[in-house]
Amino acid sequence: MRDKLEKYALRSILIGYLIVLIVAPLSAVYVQGFSLGLSNFWKTVTDEMALHAITLTIRLAVIATLIQIIIGTLIAYVLTRYEFPGKRYLNSLVDLPFALPTAVSGVMFLMVLTPNSFVGQMLDSIGISLLFNQSAIIIGMVFVTFPFIVRAVQPLLENLDEDQVQASYTLGASKWRTFCKVVFPAILPGIIAGSLLAFSRALAEFGVIALISGNIPMETLVASVYIFGQIESFNTEGATAVSVVLLTFSFLVLWITNLTRRRGDI
Amino acid sequence: MRKLLISATWFLFILIIIFPISFIVTGAFEEGWSGFIEALTRPEALHAMKISLYIVVVVTIFNVGLGILFSLELVRGNWLARWVKPVINAIIDLPFAVSPVIGGFMIILLYGPETVLGIFFASFGVDIVFALPGMILATMFVTFPFVVREVVPVLEEIGEDVEEASRTLGASKWRTFRQVTWPSIQWPVVYGAVLTIARSLGEFGAVLVVSGNIINQTQTVTTLVYQDADYFNVVGANSLALILCLISIVTLLVLDGLKRRQEVLRSEHSSEGSV
Amino acid sequence: MNIQVKDLYKNFGDFQAIKGVDFSIEEGKLVGLLGPSGGGKTSILRMLAGLEEPSSGQVILNGKVANGLTVQEREIGFVFQNYALFKHMTVFENVAYGLKVKKVDKARIKQRVEELLELMGLAQTINKYPHQLSGGQKQRVAFARALAPKPKLLLLDEPFAAIDAKVRKDLRLWLRNVISEFGITTIFVTHDQDEAIEVADELLIINSGKVEQQGTPWDIYHRPASRFVAEFLGNSNQLISPVTLKGFEILQKYQDGQEWKENSSVFIRPEWIEIRPLDVSYQKNAGETAEVTHVHFRGDAWYIELQLADLKLFTSLSINAPRYQVGDQVNLLIHKLSIFSDVGNEIAGNSLLNVSLSYHI
Ligand SMILES: Nc1ncnc2c1ncn2[C@@H]1O[C@H](COP(=O)(O)OP(=O)(O)OP(=O)(O)O)[C@@H](O)[C@H]1O
Ligand SMILES: [Mg+2]
Prior knowledge:
The complex is a heterotrimer of chains A (about 270), B (about 280) and C (about 350). Chain A has about 270 residues and is mostly helical. Chain A is built from 14 helices and no strands. In chain A, helix 2 (about 40-45) crosses helix 14 (about 235-265). The longest helix of chain A is centred in the N-terminal third of the chain and has 34 residues, at about 1-35. Chain C has two domains: about 5-230, P-loop containing nucleotide triphosphate hydrolases (Rossmann fold), CATH 3.40.50; about 235-360, CATH 2.40.50.100. Chain C has helices spanning about 40-50, 90-100, 105-120, 135-145, 165-180, 195-200, 215-220, 225-230; strands spanning about 5-10, 15-25, 30-35, 55-60, 65, 75-80, 155, 185-190, 200-205, 210-215, 235-240, 255, 260, 265-270, 275, 290-295, 300-310, 310-320, 330-335, 335-340, 345-350, 360. Chains in contact: A-B, B-C. The interface of B and C includes residues 179 and 272 of B. Adenosine-5'-triphosphate binds near residues 12, 17 and 39 of chain C. Adenosine-5'-triphosphate binds next to strand 2 and helix 1 of chain C.
């Protein structure tokens, strides 16, 4: 009897924890969103500034992910296929952008790119500015998504049979051809999974971008910073509507990630 | 080709990670050691550290403790109908997908001063939003998946056999957990705990939104860094950033060590059949 | 411990794994649960152990209904198919575990563990970890661990499944001896019939959630209660389509032209077939002339295939018996055959032999 009671108490606590911590808050956003009414919701979302923030975020996240696919695959390839001095350190460094608090990363890029720094002066002298504009946002997004593709591709490359690669060489295939026909198909699932993760992280990123984008409405204001601004100015409606859009987008990406992962298992 | 690729890799690492970090170091020491120390020992910095420490401790205790119980029930509990487990699994992943700003916003929507729950708690004199409880909730939300994600696959891998063997030998549930299950999951738990600590220390967006960033009250180290940067307090921002950065690096080293350890253990197990 | 199981059912969701099982087992018996994969052997064993709760029905241990008892209270030893050794504990700690739980004092534990390990031939491995042991050693540690707290009932789930054939043979004889030495009631699951026949005092044949037959190996082999048991246990010649066989007019009763009636199946065990020279004098008429079509050396016997009119039969012959060549004409004597049909099962003897063997089962 006591045993049963204990069991039910434990279960209630766990379910309650899940509800209080995750389910209820998430639902709150959607409930609040629906309570706006469809037309109101639509009006808020299609508000010029909000819409621009959403489309800008998606566009830049796509660009950052594409850049990441190239850098990430290259780094994963070099880190698994080649032996060279310092490799171990680089390998541990991969996770640093993920481990670094985003406020720290933001301050860091602020320091690098500010017009006072020698980098800023150098860039300025050739007529380039990378701070408080869209390229700054892309830099921030690329930085925070740095580990995802590398870490998704690495294990696949490690498992790739050296025999297969050599078989391809013995059949007369060039290195490039071997990469395209043997290596690339093997790591493609990792690239896809990694870029989905990177994309959803880029969509959600706040800290770095808030510090280095300048947050100029209609120019460099991304969705997460827009939401923050609406909360600061007590405009719950605006914050809710954009949150609903961004959340739904993120869940969609998560769902697709899970689907592809499950496909990969079989 | 090989040389070129390796050089490109080095170049990318230096450009994206190493070079920028060096700016934090120079920024922190722009006014020498004394400036650095002074920035760290400002009253608001000390207060922020205290708040961050509270959050880290409470969040870690809750998420590790309940995370372990959760994983056990999720893997071993047969009371959950078959369709429930994937649903819970998906829910556990959600915090990873949610933007931190929204993570904080949710808490305001649910427990804000004008909501039913907010008023309810306020009647007991407990403020949730713009106060420590809300910041803890937000951080708990963000870090919830870490322990569960580490422990669940290990529990699945070790299977229920050994635990059943222990029970057939007369051991109670608690003894079985302590002597049979725990030794297998202790390192994954530590791993998840380290991730939880690192993330709750570094969490910025969610905490910023919920806390209102009130100096000497609800300010954490990360939100103070943000404020310093906003006010062009270069030394202040970079000194704290440097400390956080060092903690991140230590965290990575610890995690790396733990991973190595687990790999060694795993290879021992897999050699079991072949000996 | 004596065991009674009454009308036991077990459902997993919509799936009925155990569909009404009744049996009883006397104290001190060594019983094998034998049956095809997925038949429900493990499920029955786990319900006896208390690791799984029956959906309905009773498990009675020593005259007391045990349904409400937890695993810990049942005083059983359970050996798992994959040993389930505690991998972070040494052999000594593994075996001592159950004794520590019982709060036996340290010196006694040490003495008992050492005694057991000695008996199991594991004295050398006492401080090793499971991953440093061979499969057979792990198996024996698992036995020692289960036996250490002196359980009243020992349950083994496919104890030898993961061990290679040669070691398995040694181990099962060893197991038999150890168990009879301890005199402990034991139930073991297997789907290896040789193992079951060699080790068990008594067998329970389990198929699709039901007990097909309970009895001694000899009984079950010689008087299978159902077509399933006849097919499952040992090798048999099955007569796929109706034939007329000298001395078995009874077969007419079960055939209807070219078909068997009433779902009949007819089996002839190889040892019921006798091969004799063509010029045999004793009861020559009871046999028929057949041709040897295949002879194969099997190590301990000859495996021989014969053609009798349209019928292909096989049998085996002691290596010391006279040798036959492919193409030899022989006098083939069938002593008996078994018939399973909807109207009843029987074992029919050759009516031309003067000794009557027919009986009903
Ligand atoms: N936990 C479970 N959930 C759902 N079905 C189960 C479960 N355990 C067993 N079954 C099903 O019950 C049936 C009997 O399983 P059981 O393990 O008892 O068979 P078995 O005779 O031991 O087979 P084997 O010789 O392969 O071990 C099987 O069809 C199996 O799929
Ligand atoms: Mg089984």
